[in-house]
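Researcher: I've been going back and forth with a colleague about how F-box domain-containing protein might be arranged in three dimensions. Neither of us has a model we trust, so I'd like an independent prediction. The organism is Serendipita vermifera MAFF 305830, in case that matters for your notes. Sequence below.
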Amino acid sequence: MSRPRRSVQAKKYIEEDLDSDEGSSQEEVISNGDAKSEEELSAYGDSDDGDSDISESFPHSLPIVTHTDLRHAHTVIAQQRQAIETLKSLHDQQKTRQAAAEAELRAAQKVLLEIQAIIAPISRVPPEILGVIFTAHVQDNQESPWSLMHVSRAWRAAALMTKAMWGRILIAPSSWVKAQSDGQSVRVYNGMEVCNTEAKLSRALKRAGAMPLDLMVVFLYQSWRRMTHNSDYDYDASRLIDCILSQRPNTLLRGFKLCSTYMTSAPEKLMEFDYSNIDTLYLDMNFPNLVQKLVKERRGPRSFHIGAVNLDKIENCGWLDKIEDLGITNITYYTSKPKLLRSTIFAPTNLLSLKLSGGPIVDQNQDEQQLRIMSLRRLELNVVHQFWPIDCPNLTHLTLHFSRSPPTPPQTIHLPHLVEFSLWCERLPERCLSVFEVPSLQKFDFRWGEGKAVLANALKALWLVLDTNGAVTVSNVEPRKLLLRQTAINQKVLARVLAGRKLLEEIMTVDVEISADFFEALSSAIIGKGMKRSQATQLSCPALKRIEVDLAGDKKFRPNEEAMEASACALIAARKKAGAPLERVAIRMTKKDGWKELVRIEEV
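Model: Here is an independent structure prediction for F-box domain-containing protein. You can compare it with whatever you and your colleague have in mind.
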C-alpha cells in the first residue's frame, strides 16, 4: 500500500483558517485542522484498499507547532543565550583573577628564593672553589655541566669560567645517539656534549678552552653512511677530527673512546693527538699504530680497554702494572696464546675492575692456576667460560653474560661483600645459582632466555618453602631489590617464590608478561603445604615497599589494564590493613602515557 500524502487543499485550508481566525482558541485550531486533514486523507486511503487505516500509514502523530509555542521557544532561547554570556563573563573574570594570583605567587616565591640564596652558605663559596666542586661532580658522576648553569647567575658564571668541566665531547651521528637514548634526541649523552656538526664542535671547543679533552668518537660503516636516504648522510667523523686539530693542534687528551661499526677503519689523524696524560682509553677496533704509540709513553691509562688481538703489543710496556680498570674484548679471535691473556690479567698490581667479553666456551684446565685477584671489586664476564669460576672474594659487583649453559662450579662461591649481582643468560643449570653465597646482596638483576618451565624449576631450587607452617629457608641469594628483564615466566610461580623473601624491598619488571594474576597471587599470605587459606598467618614479602611494572617495550603483550589496576589496588589495601603499607606501585603500559602511580600520598 502506498503512503498517502496530505492534500494541497487541506494544507491551504489549515493556513487560511489560522490566518482568518486569530482570536480562536488553540483547541479549536487543532480540532478543525485534524478533522479536515482526516477527511482528506481518508479519501486517499479508501482508494488504495478498503481495509487500510490511517493509523497504519501514520504510526506516530506529527506535532503541530502554534504561534504561542514559537513565541515561548524564542523567549527561552534568548534567556539561555543571555545566561551563557553572563557565565562566560564570570568565567573570564575568574581566569583573570587566577592568573593574577598565580603571578603574585610566583613573584613571592622568587623573592623568597632570592633572600634564601643570599644567606645560604653556598653563596659565600668563592667561584674558584665552586669550579673545583663542579669539575669533580661532572667527571665522577658523568653529569652534564648544563644542569648546573640553571641554578643561579653566580653558578652560571662559575660554570662558564671553569673550562675543565667542558671538555667532555661526543662526536657521533644523531641516529646512533637516538638508538642509545631510547629513541630521543638529546643534547648530552652520559655527561658528554653531542657534536655531529662543525658548528656544534667549535662551540664546545671554545667553552673547553685549552683544557684536556675527554673525547669519544663513533665511526660508521662508509657505504652505509653514504646512502642518500640516511639521516646521517653528511656525518663525517674524520672531518670533525680535522676540525679539532685545526683549532687545537696536538690536542691533549685526558680520555679517549673509539667506537666503530662493522668494517670501519679509524683515520691516521688520531695519531696527532697528545696521549701523554691519558687516563681512560677504550679501543674496540684494531688500531696497532695507536697502541704502539701508547706503549712508548711513560704514563699509561688508569682505565684501559683493548681488543685481544693487540695484547702482544702491550706485553712489555712499563705502565701495565698501574692499570686499575682493564677490559679485553674479542677474545674469541685470539685463542692461540691463552697464557698471554692470563699474564695480562695478572699484570696489574691493584686491579679494581675487570671485563672480559667474546671468549670461547672452553672448560678451565685443572692444571692451570685459578684466576684469583684479591683486589678486584668489579667483574664482568661475557661468555668467557674458561675462567669460570673466578676466585675474587672481595667483589662488590658481578655481571655474568652467558649465551650457552656454563658448567656448574664444583664448589661454593663465597662473596661476602657482593652488593650487586647481574645475571643475563640464555641457559643455566638448575642448581647453578645455589653455589653463590652472597649475604650482603642488595640488587639482583636477572634476565633469562629459556622457557617458563625451566626457569620455574631454577627459581624453585633457589627459593624453597620447606615445612607445613609456611616457614621459608634463607637462601644463599636474598636480594633487597629484584630486577627482572625480558623474561618469560609463570606469574603465579613468580609470586609464590617471591612470597617468602623476607628481605625483599623492591620488585621491578621490564618487558615481563605481568598482569592481574601476579598481584592476586602476591596478595595472598604464605600458604604451607596442606594448609587452608584461613590458617595462614604470615605475610607475603613482609619488607616489600615498592613494585614497578614496565610493559612499554613489549608491544605484543597487552594485559587488561583495568583488571590489573584493580588487583594492584587490592594488594595496596590489603597490605595497609596488615600494617605493611607499600610506598609505591607504578605501572607503565606505553612510553607516551608514562607511569601511572597507584599509591596515593595519604595511603603511605
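Researcher: What would you highlight for our discussion?
Model: I'd start with this: The chain is about 35% helix and 15% strand. After that, consider the following. The longest strand covers residues 253-260.
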